[in-house]
Design a protein that fits this description.
There is one protein chain. By secondary structure, the chain is α+β, with helices and mostly antiparallel strands. Helix content is 27%, strand content 26%. A hairpin with a 7-residue loop joins strand 16 and strand 17. The longest helix has 19 residues. The radius of gyration is 20 Å and the shape is globular.
């Protein structure tokens, strides 16, 4: 693995910021995670393409990270390159019809939600209060228990390292609960989303109602990665966990939230290993009590 060569070559590139040994705890909502061998921010498509060419040639493993809102990073970090998308990937462009928006993968989802609200466009209300980037939301089909961003996506543009840009229409992608069929070795560049006009007061009322509910039922403001487990068919993971009496269960600085049992909170001193041990304990107790194998929703990096 040519980390030294990759670092040397990438440090000379324009529109590319390269940091060695960057602690990933600074870049995750969990505030947990050891260093990445390389932390690379690409501010343009050409910078991304050149970066990927170098990483492939030097055989450096890589992963794309948005805002780290759905990931648990190992205490030992990641012995490869963490790639993030910068300036050029953070833009919005509205079509002439006024109902369609193309958003860069690096754009913040909360910013997009607010932008379409100001234009009296409905459809993304369910995403209010959901952190992360557009690219991350699309790749995991983020949403609520009943609505998902995939239902609004008209097409997606990705980049496959070594091959180039690829285009996917909505029906080219299998949209499932918290997952899609988009290839894991491709980088989402942008997504085009179709919305509908609606009175701004109606949009605001629904957003406020959903946000109030989230604040009441989720540990907003705490260091978490969102929901830990996917909801199994015909059940709610949080209810199953709570039914096992696991609210408040803790290992080290990691604790099952007293607000919502499907959230594990970093109380300030949690290590990734603490969170893993809580996940394993919860998984085992739910299986023992209900015979259900909970599937994790959180992504793991560096394990």
């Amino acid at each position: 693995m040519g980390l030294f060569n990759a670092t040397y070559r990438l440090s000379e590139q324009i529109d590319t910021d390269v940091v060695e040994g960057e602690r990933l705890a600074r870049h995750t909502s969990y505030r947990i995670g050891g260093p990445a061998a390389l932390y690379i921010t690409c501010h343009s498509y050409h910078a991304l393409r050149r970066t990927m060419e170098v990483l492939l040639r030097e055989e450096v493993p890589w992963v794309v990270l948005g805002k780290g809102s759905n990931v648990l990073v190992s205490d030992g970090g990641y012995d490869g390159a963490v790639v993030t998308l910068g300036r050029e990937f953070s833009r919005f462009a509205f079509a002439e019809d006024g109902l369609t928006v193309t958003a860069g993968a690096g754009a913040m989802l909360p910013r997009l939600v607010n932008e379409v609200y100001t234009r009296s466009l409905s459809g993304l209300e369910f995403a209010v209060g959901i952190p992360g980037t557009v690219g991350g939301a699309v790749s995991m089909n983020a949403g609520s228990a009943t609505e998902w961003i995939g239902a609004l996506v008209r097409d997606v543009v990705t980049y496959k390292p070594g091959e180039g840009i690829r285009h996917y229409a909505h029906d080219d992608i299998a949209w499932s609960y918290r997952t899609t069929s988009l290839p894991h070795d491709e980088v989402v560049l942008e997504a085009t989303i179709e919305l509908a006009p609606a009175p701004k007061a109606d949009i605001r009322e629904r957003m406020e109602r959903l946000l109030t509910r989230r604040r009441r039922t989720q540990p907003i403001g705490s260091a978490t990665c969102g929901s830990i487990f996917k909801n199994p068919p015909d059940a709610r993971a949080g209810a199953l966990i709570e039914g096992c009496g696991l609210k408040g269960f803790s290992v080290g600085g990691a604790e099952v939230s007293s607000v919502h049992a499907n959230f594990i909170v970093n109380k300030g001193t949690a290590r990734a290993q603490d969170v893993l041990e809580v996940i394993r304990h919860v998984h085992g107790k739910v299986k023992e009590a209900h015979g259900i194998e909970l599937q994790t929703e959180v992504k793991f990096l560096g394990f």
